[in-house]
DNA sequence: AAATGCGACAACCGCATTATC
DNA sequence: CGATAATGCGGTTGTCGCATT
């Protein structure tokens, strides 16, 4: 039983849009708006296009005030910070970058930023297609993985792990490697994850006291997927940039930071931006990492990878694991207080975040 | 000069969610 | 309140152009 198609694929044109089609669509929407019905729109203006295709074309290309290319360092900064924090929620990330579309950001991440941060070239798509007989997540391949595992059926289970989660683990570990190199790890003063603040107002996004937050949540996911019977350690290839330690053993099964008696928490900050700079807390290291200012000197990635504590609600209650758990927590935990102007997340220290800040402005 | 590899971007596909009847 | 339609979203694929062999 297949899903009913949204349009008649036999009569609908596919592929790149012509300037004439663009002009028709833009002229109509400029004059009449979308009319609230994308499905009917192409028929109204005589376009042989699927309504979804029209919508996508409008949102990603024709809509006013769209910026293409030339991401600024600040934008990269925001993308990386948010990706580490929330994963591939491209629409949410896009909402923090006026004029950018989720598609643009997604493409930019996949083609540039990911390589910049993970430090390895992605195999070409052709190569990936050629290797389809032995499916393996890209990020795992990029990590040089696939050769050794003590978890038995690891190749199969690893293949099931989302690449987003693995990438975030990699980013997490790279940053932790940096922190170790800077001596943060040895001082029992865990570094903070980036504190993101939207560029336009005083509302902040995420930071995590005692660090390690949401990316660590992916470790929980990885742990569960690699071995449902928790408590074990896993041989796992160390991701990009760590190739020289590719046989390192990572102890994912130590109930993470709990062993250290550290309850990681999510907190949000309402600290305002200062003088055009980002109020990113300890994100300087991330910034330097992004722009390779300290990589060469780091002598980095020695001393092992610190434990990765799980993420908890501010009350120490629900442990936040994978993306889904984060969503669930965001939606359900009692720090999430409805207000008349939209949802508001109550944060540690009395700060708060209006969730409507994440509303996309597509129709403006 | 032709073939191949690769990066970048646009567009498509299908599932999830939301709105409407 | 359930069914259906519309929309939103993220992952994936197609295509083009440049670089390299």
TrEMBL record:
PROSITE patterns the record matches: HTH_MYB, MYB_LIKE
Pfam families: Myb_DNA-binding (PF00249)
Stretches assigned to the Myb-like domain: 9-62, 63-113
Broad class of the protein's primary localization: nucleus
GO biological process: cell differentiation; regulation of DNA-templated transcription
Domain HTH myb-type span(s) in chain numbering: 9-62, 63-117
This protein's UniProt keywords: DNA-binding, Nucleus, Repeat, Transcription, Transcription regulation
InterPro entries found in the cross-reference section: Homeodomain-like_sf, Myb_dom, SANT/Myb
Gene3D superfamilies in alphabetical order: Homeodomain-like
Compartment(s) where it occurs, according to its Swiss-Prot or TrEMBL record: Nucleus
Segments forming a coiled coil: none
UniProt-recorded Gene Ontology molecular function terms: DNA binding; DNA-binding transcription factor activity
GO cellular component: nucleus
Protein name per UniProt: Uncharacterized protein
Gene: LOC123134754
